[in-house]
Amino acid sequence: MTSAGPLLEIDDLTLKLQVGGAELTALEHVSFSLGYGEARGLVGESGSGKSLTLRAILGLLPPNAVVTSGRMVFDGAEFDLAHGSKADARRLERLRGTGISMIFQEPSVALNPVIPVGEQIVDAVMRRDHLRRSQARDYAIHLMKLVGIHDAEHKVDAYEFELSGGLKQRVMIAAAVAGKPKLILCDEPTTALDVTVQRQILSLFTHLRDELDAGLLYVTHDLAVVAQLCDSITVLYSGNVMESSAELGSVFDDPGHPYTEALLRSTPDVDRIGRRLYSIPGSAPSLSDRPLGCPFAPRCEYRQDDCEQARVPDTSTVEGREVHCRHPVGHESGRVQLAKEAR
Amino acid sequence: MTTSETAIPLVPPELGPGPRRAGWAPGWLRRHNLQLWIGAVMIGLMVLAGAFAPLVAQHSPTTPDAMHTLLGPSGSHPFGTDNLGRDIFARVVYGARSDLTIAVVAVIAPFLIGLVFGIVSGYFGGWIDTIMMRLADIVTAFPFFILVIALVFVLGNGAWSIFVAITCVSWVAYARLVRGEAMVLRNKEFVAACQAGGISTWRILLRHFAPNVATQAIVYAMSDIVMNVGVIVTLSYFGLGIVPPTPDWGSMMADGQQFLAGGYYGMTLFPAGAVIWTSLALSFVGDGLAHALRIER
After folding, report:
1. DSSP class of residue B205?
2. What pTM was computed for the model?
3. Contact B199 A112 (CB under 8 A)
4. Would you say B109 and B163 are in contact if contact means Cβ atoms under 8 Å apart?
5. Average pLDDT by consecutive 10-residue portion of chain B (297 residues)?
6. Can you tell me which family this protein belongs to (chain B) (predicted)?
7. Whether A98 contacts chain B with CB within 8 A
8. ipTM exceeding 0.85, yes/no
9. What is the rounded distance in angstroms from the CA atom of residue A296 to the CA atom of residue A284?
10. Among A137, B14, B116, B186, whose Cα sits 20 to 30 Å from the Cα of B145?
């Protein structure tokens, strides 16, 4: 809590991918912000640009990705994310690990198989803080205990392939918090884990949030995870922000965008056992043939003629809430079954 | 989902039995691997003989004895004597010194150069890779022996020029090998994880790439030593290598050739045997290592 204003602010992030000569827009005018210590869920289907958004924040984009516009404010410092601003890219690089860190989806490939995990946890901080080997080792053990690895004294010398999936993800989390970052980016960190381990890791995140006072940007396609962990939510579809809210509950109770509503309806619910689960008709558009106006329009139940027009405005009237739809669902829809009890 | 989020199970129940890192050697060495051990014992004997040459050999390798030339094997001269009356056993043992030393040293330098070259080329890719690999192509364009012999001609005889010549030529193989590995590694997610962790590029390359890509190169180095022994012996055989009277297997064979017709086989046979023994031993070690490190060649 060092300064007023948000911890992270992403403004008008547009990113293009060059694929075989064609230039495809993968992110379009994406904006959102994150307060100090806040956890925001970044929700969307595969290919909606969630992971690209995270990678753009860290400046770790694939070589064929070009940021055409985008401004980021992190902890009071402003960065131009657009491709070509070398100086800002360098400043961004210095933030990695210590200001912003990232937890990856697949822990087994995100760890180096030939180096003991303990060393990898403290690799970055060891140099920065000029720790001696023994100090670094102690710190690694401390962190491993913090993320719930008991007998850390032994596990610190283990290799990646000697650990279970849950332990590996704990190691990744330990590495991510080692530099005491203000912001942790999570790229579906529980997707590769089985449900019981997933549950433990989620509890760990909740616990660490309190302990570290770090902001969390949590990418997932699992609304239940968001409900359990996050304060706020941003819904992405085909590289566009559909709906965004600083208050999670309001979106769950009263979704504004038809897409959000459809997402909530297609979430399994214990109260509706035996009934057919809703699924959104059609499939997500590929980047190459995205409609000009609202990208969700072709699949939308409430589609009207003006939905085809470009640049959908924000029609939300509530503070801290954004709904990019010309015909928002509104309070009266009453279809939403998944309610607050999910929390 | 339960309501109490405060009771965090900081000790997860799913901890598997973590293997302890105890024992006298890493697992891959402990695994049953007869080939590796036979090779290691064979090369070990040769290295020990070379290292303790003054104790092993009772005669000087260089002092001629005009009274005892071209003797057959006997108790005092196990391998007999050559045309100048020098003890062949002593010369073979001292020859191991010079030949093995150069063979090993001339592997280390290309190994390191190739490792750095390959990692940089494979990691950065693009025009850096293009330039570096074209440079490697230039070296590869010449037949190995022609280039080595040409370099030794330019540099003059002796251990040092053999070393330089081999280094100049054989780093290419390591560079290509490592480059391939590095290119695969570059796309592994742990590299992105390292970058996300704020670890500098050079540290990623040294600390995270080098140990990953070295395995292949180490196995190759074993067969490269065999190759080097061959090169050194061949050069010396042609009078381009180690300068007489320093004992060396290649020049010994060359000297012995003219006496073969007279029925004096010892001068040629024993150094040749030493070459075969050494090559066989190193090949065993190389194959054994490859097997132990589970690398298909």
Report:
1. I
2. 0.73
3. no
4. yes
5. 40 41 52 81 91 84 79 79 84 89 91 94 91 92 89 87 91 93 88 85 88 86 88 87 82 87 85 92 86 59
6. Belongs to the binding-protein-dependent transport system permease family.
7. yes
8. no
9. 8
10. B116
Q: Classify residue B270 as left (phi > 0), alpha (psi -120 to 50) or beta.
A: alpha
Q: Per-residue pLDDT tens for A73-118?
A: 998 888 888 866 778 888 888 888 888 999 988 888 888 888 899 9
Number of independent structural domains in chain B = 1
Q: Which of B5, B14, B207 faces A164 most closely, judged by CB atoms?
A: B14
Sheet holding A215-220, edge to edge: A100-103, A183-187, A215-220, A39-43, A232-237, A240-245, A321-323
Is residue A166 within 8 angstroms of chain B, CB to CB?
A: yes
B36 lies in a domain? no
Q: Residue B206 sits in which domain range? A: 96-248
Q: Which two tokens stand for residue A288?
A: 């190459």
Residue B60 lies in a domain: no
Cross-chain CB nearest to B14 (options A145, A179, A197)? A197
Q: Judge whether A124 is closer than 8 Å to chain B, CB to CB.
A: yes
Structure tokens at A152: 């850390």
How big is chain B, counted in residues?
A: 297
- Compute how many other C-beta atoms are within 10 angstroms of the C-beta atom of residue A330: 12
The CATH code of the domain that includes B156 is 1.10.3720.10
CB < 8 Å to A342, chain B: 1
Gap between the Cα atoms of B73 and B266, Å rounded: 8
Q: Give the distance from CA A27 to its chain's centroid.
A: 14
Strand partners, A245: A233, A321
User: Is A155 in a helix, a strand, or coil?
Assistant: helix
